[in-house]
Structure formats: structure tokens, C-alpha cells
Amino acid sequence: MQMRGALLAVEEINQAGGVLGRPLELLERDSASNPERAQRNVDELAGEGARMLFGGASSAVAIAAGQRARERGLLYFGTLTYSNDTTARRVIAICSARATTPGWRRGYCPPSCRSSLPASVITM
What global pTM score does this model have? Predict the structure, then answer.
């Protein structure tokens, strides 16, 4: 289901001109719910030029992949994570502007949302 949503989003973004005028390409790997495999996937995808990663069929996979992505300077979004290690310790808030708003498409967090977040929060 994650992949279908991602494919639809990439198609919509590319039809609207991509990101900064460049089309997105979705690269795919299967971790087989194995944290070590997830880390190798991050290395492979980074080698292919990936700049942002998402996924994580379990919290252990998301933690391992997220740590490796951080080491490599990549953004990582865990999509199916529920353990305290992924939800309570270092929570990163992301503005929840609707994807159809022009600001969100530019990667912009509206001032009304931004002003209510602590300084340590990453906004998009």
C-alpha cells in the first residue's frame, strides 16, 4: 500500500513540473523486515543518488535505516513505526498543511503552523 501511495504522489508531482523543475524518480528496495538488510538498502540507494528515503515495515527496520540514512546525510521518514524509540524520544513534527496548498508544494511551512512549533522541530 505504501508503494501505491508513493507512486501516485510521484506521478502527481511530476505532472505538476517536478521539484525545482526536476522530475522525481522512485527507487525501491525490500528490507524483508531485516534491519541489517535495511541498512544495506540505504547504502545502495545512496549510491544511486537517492536524497530522501521512506519506509520501515517495522520499528526495528525504521530505526536501523534511519540511523544509516542520518550517517549518510539523507532524510528518512519512517512510515510504519510504533515503538517508543520512533515515536516518543526524538519526535520530529512536520507541518500538516494539505498537499493541495501551493505552499506545501513548494516545501513551505505556513507561518501559522511554524510559529506554534518549538525551534528544534523540522518543518517542511
Answer: 0.65
